[in-house]
Amino acid sequence: MVERTPILNFFTHLILFVGFVFCVAPFVIVAIAASHSLKEVNDVPMSLLPGSEFWVNIKTAWTTADLGPKLFNSFVMAAGVAAGKVIISALTAFSIVYFRYPGRMLIFWLIFVTLMLPLEVRIVPTYAVVANVMSPYQAILDVTGLSWLIEKVSGVQVSLSLGLLNSYTGLIMPLIATATGTFLYRQFFLTVPDELTEAARMDGAGALRFFIDILLPLSRNNMAALGTIMFLWAWNQYLWPLLITTDASHATAVTELKQLIPNVGGIPEWNIAMAGTLIVMLPPLVVVVAMQRWFVRGLIATEK
Amino acid sequence: MEKRVTFSRWSIGILFAVPQLLLIFTFFYWPAGQAVYWSLTLQQPWGGGNIWVGLDNFRSILANADYWNSITASLVFAACSTGLAMVIALVLAALTDRQLAGSRLYRVVLIWPYGIAAPALAMAFRFILAPEAGFMAVVNQVWPGFWDPGLDGTDAMASIIAAFSWKYVGYNFIFFLAAFQAIPRSLIEAAAMDGSGVLRRFWDIQFPLITPTIFFLLVINITESFQDSFGIVDIMTAGGPANSTNLMVYKIYSDGFKGLDYSGAAAQSIILMLLIIVLTIFQFRFIERRVHYR
Amino acid sequence: MASITIRDVRKSYAKMQVVHGVNLDIASGEFVVILGPSGCGKSTLLRMIAGLEEISGGTIAIDGKVVNTLEPRERGCAMVFQNYALYPHMSVAQNIGYSLKVAGVPVAERAQRIQAVARILELEHLLDRKPMALSGGQRQRVAMGRAMIREPKVFLFDEPLSNLDAKLRVQMRSEIRKLHRRLSATSVFVTHDQVEAMTLADRLVVMNGGRVEQVGTPAEVYSRPASRFVATFVGAPAMNMLEGEVTLDGLSLLGGSRKLNVSRAGLPVGSKIAVGIRPEAVRLVAPGTPGALDATVDLVEELGAGRVIYVDLDGAAFSVVTSETAHPAPGSAVGLQFSEADLHFFSSETGSRLDVFKASMPVPAL
Predict the structure, then answer these.
(1) What does UniProt give as the signal peptide span (chain B) (predicted)?
(2) pLDDT surpasses 80 at B218
(3) Which CATH entry fits the domain spanning C237-359: 2.40.50.140, 3.20.20.60, 3.40.190.80, 2.60.120.280?
(4) Could you give the number of structural domains in chain B?
(5) Where are the domains of chain C?
(6) Which subunits count as partners of chain B given 3+ CB pairs below 8 Å?
(7) At residue C182, does pLDDT exceed 90?
(8) Mean pLDDT over residues C272-281, rounded?
(9) In a domain? residue B69
(10) Which tens digit of pLDDT belongs to each residue from C34-78?
(11) Average pLDDT over residues A58-66
(12) Alpha-carbon separation of residue B31 from A4, A142, B218, C48 (angstroms)
């Protein structure tokens, strides 16, 4: 459109630039602070020119917070959640979109309700379940009298027990148990032309064949989007890993950050803290930058 | 919406849903039910099962000034951070949508903060807003004692609001920009032909058309401010000073896992769940129906 | 190659019945076109033959074997879809060969058969492309190839040409015809385009409202439409219809302003009937010519080879197709002349053809 609005354009640029600065500044400050010596970082005002201690600080933060194994744990958790979500949601969406069975709507709503209550608000009982993942089933057997029956008949006392605290499974599974991905796939499956399904049926393909040969390859974009979002989401989890990894061997990089909060009293080691922060924020930032397209797409699609 | 074409062997169909159903039963429905059970019972200190206490747990929570303080803090936090994050994002998205030179750069960069883990950005903001080092220290040099989130509750609240808003500006920006770009170009051009200027067009056409997105984000931001705030609070203030930033989720965590009061924590969880369910239903029922243009 | 026998086939969804008891016999090797407006049940019928739609009542037999409960893959049919339904993520070769892959045909044999089909359809140079990179006509050919490679007993076409532009449609039409001559497989082709139907069909099935209105060769359907619906649906511009009533001495038309002297052949006086005449059977003559109807010209449409002249006949719209160079101006008066052999009579109540008039018809004096 031909439109001359020089004053408005000036303010547009100005405001956007200020927004840009506010957005980028914390990253820059973290990086600069991470390069200073202990004295420099506590100077008021702190110098905005990079110092020379960057690698030293990174190394100190790395060893203090034991970031190597922690980053690995974070990676396993994030990749596990992303993969689990991508696969399990696809299966479920296929079931509720491409089949008509009794109770289908019930299943749909059971899954839908999980969207409403995030893990954070039900941590206490979820923690108890993960401590013994068999407890729900044990309770069901007890209440229905089945365990009594089994004990009478076989003489074996039923006592199911499987603790998942301090395990990757325990970290990952509860994070997968929501509906986000299912609805993303559902929306997509509904847009897949019916004629493709019919063509596949005419070509002799059954349900499983159609799912693997046609539907999944067509869903590649959605899988990338969902995978990206879920990877980031899982990587950034804090409360859940904090709770269930009572043992440091399974702690994640994000929970480990707490170790780097400078002590009260003494000169705060902000340079080390910022170096650690930089390490922890870098992987998700790389994912966002590299997968920008999928990230944006996944974000918008998962929320609708 | 339904598919016209389906597969007939529905026994196979159910099998596909089984993994998800097992997961949500074990890690969602059972714990949610458990929370209800715990909230209505009291655990014996030396084991030996729970005793039924009815609504006593709720009564004692609601009679507790600390809990009301936590609710107030959560609401203040929700209102301020949501307002800040949404207004800033709306302005930035509207301006980026004008497609002037450089808008591509903004589109890429403004999203970055949302990718960052709450505790990590909390750490960054803890440093930036620290009273003795970093940037607020400069202000403190000019006006000694002006800023200290470690001692002053208002300063602490302002700190966590700043950190949270910084992250969610990026999130809201994505949605606002998508909403702006979904407005058909021809509508804007028609308004321009009608003699309407840029600002006029924004108020008369673009703004009304994105109201569904505004309401959607409003609900999402409020619910996220209840959940995603945990990492920020834990790293920046640990609920202090003097409980001034002891938000609801943080209180559930500290009561349940530090104070080992499972019943009280469960009752608090139930109240928070109800709050979020009400918000969600409000969004689906009320907002989606009233603000709908297509 | 196979015959198809359709006996009293019905289809209903929750409350609506969309196909009402269709009977049809399709001979082995025949090319049958099902023609009808959208929503007439023609696609549903085709999909019931394919096995994509449950049959609510009646039976469909292929080669004498009832297939009602068989899965599509077990029926030996191949189908070409309206939107081609090519798998977007597979190459042309993979698309064509997918059914063989599902059936577990070894790779070498598969490749060989894909090559053979591609050669017939002139797709050899496109085998590695994705459907996205093909033109409409090429996609159409891939869809045909996918159907052909299975060497099916029956080919089913669901409006396969409707997404092509006019020129390509004519070309694909003749290609399909040639292909049929070459493979001589039983084919059922569904369309709402009457030109397509007329040019392709050995036999035409005209459907309306879930019922078969007429079955016959294209020439039969055109020259002796079995119902008022068929008469107006087949042929363009549509057949002119004049409403009339049986009187003691023949027919009164257009609310009594014209008379037609025909024997009423036992029909009760007062029965409502419709008289049809094709626009191309009408000749334009000078107004006032004896035995001709006088009318006023409304609009003239130039077709190049001829023209369509829309006239007003005592308030009724009437069209004439003429190849003469005469170019009457709108508003001018013309005479319409036609031979009685070209008239068609239909019951106004049932819409069915009334041949009684034809048989006993004396020279009409209009």
Answers:
(1) none
(2) yes
(3) 2.40.50.140
(4) 1
(5) 4-230, 237-359
(6) A
(7) no
(8) 88
(9) yes
(10) 999 988 999 999 999 998 888 998 999 999 899 988 888 888 888
(11) 84
(12) 60, 17, 28, 49
Question: Measured between beta carbons, which residues in chain C are less than 8 angstroms from residue A205?
Answer: 73, 98, 102
Kindly calculate the radius of gyration of chain A based on its CA atoms and give it in whole angstroms.
25
- Which of A 122-141 lie inside 8 A of B, CB atoms? 122-130, 133, 136
Q: Is C96 helix (H, G, I), strand (E, B) or coil?
A: helix
Kindly give the interhelix angle for C42-50 and A194-202, rounded to the nearest 10 degrees.
40
Listed in sequence order, the residues at least 6 apart from C237 whose beta carbon sits closer than 8 Å to its beta carbon are C279, C308, C319, C321
Note down the domain range covering B232: 64-290
Q: How far apart are CA A160 and CA B31, in angstroms?
A: 17
Q: Which residues pair with C25 in a beta bridge?
A: C5
Six token digits for residue B160:
């966590």
Which of C97, C93, C78 lies closest to C131, judged by CA? Answer: C93
Chain A: nearest CA to C190, how far in angstroms? 15
Q: Which of residues 185-224 of A touch C (CB under 8 A)?
A: 193, 195-196, 198-205, 209, 213-214, 217-218, 220
Q: Does residue B201 lie in a domain region?
A: yes
Q: Is residue B26 part of a domain?
A: no
The answer to whether A296 faces chain B, any CB pair under 8 Å, is yes
Q: Name chain B contacts of A163, Cβ cutoff 8 Å.
A: none
* Residue pair A127/A243 in contact by the 8 Å Cβ criterion: yes
Specify the amino acid at residue B198: V
Q: Phi, psi at residue C189, to the nearest 5°?
A: -125, 125
Residue among C78, C85, C98 minimizing CB distance to A195: C85
User: What percent of chain A lies above the pLDDT cut of 90?
Assistant: 12
Percent of chain A predicted with pLDDT > 70: 94
Chain A, chain B: beta-carbon pairs less than 8 Å apart: 315
- Check: CB of residue C291 under 8 Å from CB of residue C365: yes
CATH of the domain at B215: 1.10.3720.10
To the nearest whole Å, the CA of A69 is away from the closest chain C CA by 40
Phi/psi of residue C296, nearest 5 degrees: -110, 135
pLDDT at A152: 76
DSSP summary character for residue C134: S
Contact C276, C228 (CB under 8 A): yes
> Torsions phi, psi of C82, nearest 5?
-60, -45
Tell me how far apart the alpha carbons of residues C76 and C212 are, in angstroms, rounded to a whole number: 25
Which domains occur in chain A, in start order? 34-302 (1.10.3720.10)
Residue with the bigger pLDDT between A91 and C337: it is A91
Residue range C4-230, CATH number:
3.40.50.300
Residue B193 in any domain: the answer is yes
Q: Which residue in chain A is spatially nearest to B96 when comparing CA positions?
A: A16
Q: A166 to chain C, minimum CA–CA distance in Å?
A: 42
Residue C34's beta-bridge partner residues? C190, C205
Q: Which of B4, B9, B30 to mutate to test the interface with A (most CBs of A within 10 A)?
A: B30
Contact A125 B32 (CB under 8 A): yes
3-class secondary structure, A189:
helix
Name every chain A residue with its beta carbon within 8 A of the beta carbon of B240.
none
Please answer yes or no on whether B27 and A45 come within 8 Å at the CB atom.
no
Q: Is the pTM of this model over 0.90?
A: no
C305 and C322 Cβ atoms separated by less than 8 Å: no
User: Which of C80, C96, C99 is the best residue to mutate to test the A interface, defined by the most A CB atoms within 10 Å of its own CB?
Assistant: C99
